[in-house]
Amino acid sequence: MKRTSFICILLVACAAFLAAACQNKPEPDNSAEKIIPSNISVPSELEIEDGQTIILSLIGRAHVTMKDEVVMRTAANQDIICPIVAVDEGIAIEFSLPSGFVAGNYKVYIRRDGINYYVGSIQLSILKPLVIEPDPGTNIYGIVECEGKGVPGVLVSDGVEFATTDANGIYQLNSKKKWKYVFVVIPSGYAVPSQGVLPSFHATLTQNMNTAERRDFELVKTDNDNFTMFVLGDMHLANRNNDISQFNQFSRTLSAEISSAKNPYVLTLGDMTWDLYWYSNKYEFPQYLNTINSNYSGVQFFHTMGNHDNDMNSVGDYNKSFQYTRDIAPTFYSFNIGQIHFVVLDNIDYNNVGTGSDLRGNYKRNFTAEQMTWLAKDLSYVDKSTPVFMSAHAPLSLPSGAVSWNNNYLNGADSAGEANLAEFQKAVEGYDVHFLSGHTHNVFNRTFSKTLSEHNCGAVCATWWWSGHLTPGIHVSQDGAPGGFAVWEFSGKNFKHSFRSAGHPADYQFRAYDMNKVKEVIVPSLGGNHKDFVKFSTAAANYPANTILVNVWDYDTDWKVSISENGKELTVNRVAAYDPVHVVALSAKRCQSASATSTPSFLTNSWTHFFQAQASSANSTVTVTVTDRNGNTYTETMVRPKAFDINDYKNQ
């Protein structure tokens, strides 16, 4: 068997390769797998040329035969069988990769008689033949290809600098390699392959600045001028509060929407996980990806980083993001789908923050100077007629009262070049920008100007999965918005958006209450006469007789809300209010179980997408008509008195 033309992986074994010793520990994600002794190791990374076979060099008597197989397991838990083509017993085995095998992170096994023997994990890079003499100073280079041909004019970035591929699809970067990754800015008319739900648009760097590294990217031609982007706010998956089961229920709605959409994509808005429970509940990014990949296939998830996706066992903003950049994506990057440019940013700044869970709230909300410098470079390549969608975890501003705004929410900039709201607005001036944010677990929409608007998209987890845990079937956020997701439908440069509630029909866009009956339910004793429940019972009691309260969670100024009594229009006022369903499903139960002196967390928020009118009678029929920004009309004919029963609001 020839060895000179192959890459070798050294596996050091002190015992027989397939010895099943009692001390072997099972793989945590598959207890049926047999594990060889722990002194067997696989290099963490390997580069091979396309079509090249691989040799595993062995120390000791391994007794691998031609009947065995090598198994490469993807991040989506898909097993790829790689046939063994030659065996030099006790010294080496040679195996080949099947056609279409893509680069990525894999777990490696030897399979015998249907049983997997775990070897290790590897990041495998597959390189196309490339003859190039890198320019002086180049330390990152490669080719961007589609169907075997280089693609010219494609942007590649290391998070600081940009390079453009030449006529042959080759790029070169002189990089300081700070971020230890490089990514391709997916161009219009193309997509990239996937590893599970993760799009393969970035690659890890492992060498120092003085060593040139080659990283190639594959593009796939696609017609995606018409596409749908599903936007998911905070998930907070942590293996607690029955959250995985609740998420699986949530996924039924999203999966159905994805399956019926043309060219579907997903964009998350941060806090996919919950750092507080990474270690205690053994639920980190790999477990998160297992959950997502088990619920979704055939759709790519582009990710935004949140404050709870930082590792609080590390020091400073850069180090705290290491696990995220290793397992998920860069903290800021850009890509194109159809005629839309997307920019993902990170406005949670942990600069100079030390270790420890008690410091998790010590971040500042701002855009770092290096992001703003990178953003200026990125936008310089974007025509100003192109709609730009930007995402970050924290919002640019917050509602304040019924109709005003807190413009100082993004206020953490304290060094030259960092950006708060005013600096950010200046940086994106001249572009048509829609800013997508999460973090609040509420829903709001704001128009800053003709060219800048913000859409805070609620939360997948609603109230951190608490409402459905305390009151099964009720999945609502602190503003009363159902757990759900935003749906953005694009056609060329035109688009529209809506909110989809999980577990409810698509026309579930508001909730209307007869407050005469609500105030009979929300009384001090419902919350165990707890001091923190008083504000809810008092607010309910203070509604004038015959008040109609309507929660329109996805409201913006393009919506219309009308309330009529027996055909006569009533005066409708927009107000800040507590949502009765959330008060009963969560706040009451949290207060009931709390000590008299403690303040329960996750209680109902007073929020600003409520509308109020006063009927003339307690027994009249009232019609609530809501027309959304897309011209769709939703109506409820309320025969009063209308009882308030929490069971009427459960998921269907």
Describe this structure in words.
Helix content is 14%, strand content 33%. The protein is of the alpha+beta class. The protein folds into four domains: 7-127, Immunoglobulin-like; 140-220, Immunoglobulin-like; 223-501, 4-Layer Sandwich (Purple Acid Phosphatase, chain A, domain 2), CATH 3.60.21.10; 511-649, no CATH class. Strands 1, 2, 3, 4, 5, 6, 7, 8 and 9 form a nine-stranded mixed β-sheet that branches. Strands 10, 11, 14, 16, 20 and 21 form a six-stranded mixed β-sheet that branches. The protein has a six-stranded mixed β-sheet with strand order 25-26-29-32-34-33, with no helix packed on it. The chain starts with 6 loop residues before the first strand and ends in a 13-residue tail after the last strand.
In short:
This protein is of the alpha+beta class and 652 residues long.
Write down the CATH class of the largest domain: Alpha Beta
The proportion of strand residues reads 25-35%
Structural class: alpha+beta
**Architecture of the largest domain, according to CATH?**
4-Layer Sandwich
Look at the structure and give the mean pLDDT: 90
Low-confidence stretches: 1-32, 35-41
Number of helices: 10
CATH topology of the largest domain: Purple Acid Phosphatase, chain A, domain 2
Query: Count the strands?
Result: 44
The major beta sheet can be summarized as: 9 strands, mixed
Shape descriptor:
globular
Which range best describes the helical content: under 10%, 10-25%, 25-40%, 40-55%, 55-70% or over 70%? 10-25%
**Roughly how many Å is the radius of gyration?**
28 Å
Please identify which CATH superfamily of the largest domain we are dealing with. Answer: Metallo-dependent phosphatases
N- to C-terminal distance = 63 Å
The total tally of domains equals: 4
